[in-house]
Amino acid sequence: MKKIILYSTTILISISLWSCSNKGPNLNPEPNRSTFKDAPDWFNEKPKKEGYIYTSSLAESRNYQSSLTKAAAIARRELATTLESEVNALTDLVNRETGSGIESEFITDFKETTQVIVSNTLQGAEVVKQQTIELKTDGGKIFRSWVLLEYDKGYQQKKLLDAIKADKILSDKLEASELVKEMEDKVEAYRKRKGQ
Known about the structure:
By secondary structure, this protein is an alpha+beta fold. It has one domain. 61% of the residues lie in helices and 18% in strands.
């Protein structure tokens, strides 16, 4: 009999705790007119500035800081995707300029070098604008945050150019190419922007 009472009590407490834990704000409310109306102008129309990439994102959370952190992480992921596309285009350009086969060790080394540099320089992206609002949902309040991320491509170009010059094979193969000249111009523009 004690076991039945113990099991029954355990089941009732479990059901009670389960039903309590299911209550809470809906972190994915359906978009409505206010979703679009509340979005800052810079979210839909990102700035255009020579030498920079901008990404924006939106996230929701019960916690104010978590909503900002999640939005920034999503924007960084979008930036990484953009930079990955640029690395692939750059690798194709190097392949054409050097006449190396796409499967060559040189191209593989170049692509790996650029991917490492991109992943390391991604941390240089800065949140330049953010906005958060508090929303009421059926289960409580949540925060919706928008962020705008700015990334100076010159920093990446500088690191890549330094890596090319440090690698004798890469440097010899690309020394006379238009690509290196273009990168040097971009790095010079970056230095001027940063007052170096």
